[in-house]
């Protein structure tokens, strides 16, 4: 059975949904067996990252982020070259989009509510010209339930200028009511993909279960967006040679003889303590 499953692709729906809500989902894009292998790779990468300084960065109590190289995932090509992923990237970011980040978030049992935030300040192209220059794709490694601390997103907030947000990322608590009114919790299942603007105000919620909820992240930029400066993707020559030519066009990263484990650059200090 193929890892990637056929799903409907409607580029106009993709465009209007992301422009309106800041997030869109695709159900049943992969088989559950494919996701089970992804979970194995994520768990192995997490153990390696936790064994060295700077390998995993805290995003709140019992919540971590790890950035990895593409070839740490046996299913990287399946994901990055999935027809729905390609369609979303081309529709929102244009044909010359670039993959700049591969990583994963892991909220463990005891993770608390994060403060409402966006992942980086809104660029001028977005808050002045209403043009999105980046996307984050998420693939859950589990069937998400209410007690596992589901992702919560305040739909439509990707257009907020955020000039009054702390560091351009964290709104004042006095504004939380507005985000809570727009908040939607997401309950993806194994095999689903979502795509969102990282500028859409969001948070991870309290994990009251005994289970971890790892989520893979694929970060993609429009040309010139500059988020690649926060990341250190690299590939070996043998891995590069194995990639489809169509996918190579969207990976402009160093080709090396030997991979160096990534020390995370994109720390978000405001998430370390969780919501006060």
TrEMBL record:
InterPro entries: Fungal_Metabolite_Diox (IPR051961), Phytyl_CoA_dOase-like (IPR008775). It holds the Pfam family PhyH. It comes from the Bacteria. GO terms for molecular function: 2-oxoglutarate-dependent dioxygenase activity. This is Phytanoyl-CoA dioxygenase. It comes from uncultured Nocardioides sp.
């Amino acid at each position: 059975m193929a890892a990637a499953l056929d799903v409907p692709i409607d580029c106009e729906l993709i465009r209007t949904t992301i422009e309106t809500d800041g997030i869109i989902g695709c159900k049943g894009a992969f088989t559950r067996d494919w996701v089970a292998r992804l979970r194995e790779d994520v768990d192995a990468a997490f153990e390696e990252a936790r064994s060295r300084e700077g390998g995993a960065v805290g995003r709140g109590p019992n919540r971590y982020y790890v950035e990895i190289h593409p070839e740490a995932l046996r299913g990287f090509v399946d994901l990055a070259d999935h027809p729905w992923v390609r369609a979303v990237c081309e529709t929102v970011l244009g044909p010359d989009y670039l993959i700049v980040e591969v990583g994963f978030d892991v909220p463990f049992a005891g993770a608390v509510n994060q403060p409402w935030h966006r992942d980086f300040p809104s660029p001028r192209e977005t808050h002045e010209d209403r043009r999105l220059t980046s996307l984050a794709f998420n693939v859950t490694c589990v069937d998400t339930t209410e007690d596992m601390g589901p992702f919560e997103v305040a739909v439509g907030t990707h257009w907020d200028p955020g000039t009054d947000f702390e560091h351009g990322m964290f709104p004042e608590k006095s504004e939380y009511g507005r985000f809570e009114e727009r908040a939607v919790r997401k309950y993806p299942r194994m095999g689903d993909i979502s795509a969102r603007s990282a500028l859409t105000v969001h948070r991870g919620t309290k994990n009251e279960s005994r289970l971890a909820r790892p989520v893979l992240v694929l970060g993609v930029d429009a040309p010139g967006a500059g988020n690649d400066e926060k990341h250190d993707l690299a590939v070996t020559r043998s891995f590069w040679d194995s990639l489809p030519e169509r996918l190579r066009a969207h990976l402009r990263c160093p080709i090396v003889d030997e991979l160096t484990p990534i020390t995370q650059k994109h720390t978000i200090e405001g998430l370390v303590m969780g919501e006060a």
